[in-house]
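Example 3.2
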Amino acid sequence: MEVRYERCCGIDVHKRSVVACVIVPGADRQPHKETRTFGTMTAELQGLGAWLQACGVTHVAMESTGVYWQPVFNVLEGACEILVVNAEHIKKLTGRKTDVQDAEWIADLLRHGLLRGSFIPSAVQRELRDLTRYRTMLTDERTREVNRLQKVLEGANIKLASVATDVMGVSGRAILAELITGQADAATMAELAKGRLREKRALLEQALTGVVKAHHRFMLAQHLSHIDYLEEAMARLDAQVEDQMRPFAVAVARWDTLPGINRRLAQILIAEVGADLRQFPDAAHLASWAGMCPGHQESAGKRHSGKTRKGSVWLRRALTEAAHGAARTKKSYFAAQYHRLAGRRGKKRAVIAVGHSLLVAGYHVITRQEDYTDLGVQYFDQRDREAVRRRSVRRLEQLGFTVTLTPVAAAA
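Structure, written as tokens:
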């Protein structure tokens, strides 16, 4: 088998140790293997780097094992080319398995060019990912805490959520503050309603008549305190994300031109896929990497399940959220695409298809440096006008009508 890299190293990564196998040409030009074990403290990993440099290693491969590959990557980055490989792609054949054998197996695969490295973003992008992903987790935690607060209200016979759209809105906050202080008069609390909620004061007074005990007030205070803390943390994260996104302001604005994508989602997309998308040859490669396109499984001339492959759950979530928004954008291409697919393929598949289209459109918007131009709600009808005409006439005739079509231009 052809040798692609003469001086390479395979590393089996663990939490407390790494096993490295170096393959270099020997005195008789035959491959010479040497295996060593190192700890994962920074000084020990620097020793690994010095050993690899002394051996003249040019390429290193290791599994993407949890987060344990990151310390090794941080020390070796820049010294040689590093391939962080999906563990599924380098599974060893069944039989005896040791850390040394794993390292040798990875080194052998790398030596013959049989490994494909995963996309590792730059340090700046990795920092952005940390910020946006943590912000998403805090948002989820706030939602869970609001649900816990709502559970306490229900336990106290307070049906605030049945009347107010947002329990944590301005009116809801004021009412909850009164409940915590011991206010028991429902009419007094109903008067705290603001805006359109004042039109429902009579219903609100009924909803606020409950059985609120000291225990409920204590729990409400704890939940509100936690929600306030989460909101403050999210505000700090928003400020930090905005500060680090300044160099990518143009890319954020480009993504923001797409239906369903707001500034927050644009920041998440840039953190996940990058600002310039140079690492992806075309839109199809980006969609495949993101796991937003149908899979391809064929055997004996038969096509089997075409479910999407696994990709970044953070990117998929952002695109799905954007797809829901784009599907509700009136008179847009994405709304037409969603309704066209939802009826015959189901809503979930339609949402993924719209998310795929948003990602493809975003790729072209970023790489061509131009704002998004919508194709219009009539795009699919205009693409095959004759088929639409036949289908519409046939449906009307099935309902008992005689149909005569006259072109608008001829009628004028």
